Amino acid sequence: MKLSRTYGMRQVALHALLALLPVLEPAAAEQVPQVVTIEIKDFAFVPASLAVRPGTTVIWKNLDDEAHTVVSDAGQFRSSALDTQESYSYTFTSAGTYRFVCSLHSHMTGVVKVE
Ligand SMILES: [Cu+2]
After folding, report:
1. CA of 69 to the centre of ligand 1 (A)
2. Which residues make beta-bridge pairs with 100?
3. Residue 98 · residue 92 · CB < 8 Å
4. How far apart are CA 65 and CA 41, in angstroms?
5. What is the pTM of this model?
6. Ligand 1 mean position to 43 CA, how many Å?
7. Which candidate, 89, 87, 34, places its Cα nearest to that of 63?
8. How far is the CA of 60 from the centre of ligand 1 (A)?
9. How many CB atoms lie within 10 A of CB 1?
10. Residue pLDDT tens, the chain, 115 long
């Protein structure tokens, strides 16, 4: 009888936890900061096109021996010249299409879509 009552209490506690899960999960997911890396290598942004959620931080990391920059077409962000292994980051808070280029090599272009 005592064992059975203990088991019953555990069941109640388990059900109470499970009932909370649907409420907790979406909130927890939104609080996790998203960080995505774009590599700069062989005179290209990899990936050249990226879709992210608002609040995502994008890190550009230069893996080339040559210096590169990351410059927003619309002037929202601009890195200094990045030497090998140096990186630059920007956090996208608003939805939109953000095109960027390396100001030293104009054929190097990329886009971040925030949606
Ligand atoms: Cu470049």
Report:
1. 6
2. 72, 110
3. yes
4. 9
5. 0.73
6. 6
7. 87
8. 12
9. 5
10. 455 555 555 555 555 545 555 555 555 555 566 999 999 999 999 999 999 999 999 999 999 999 999 999 999 999 999 999 999 999 999 999 999 999 999 999 999 999 9
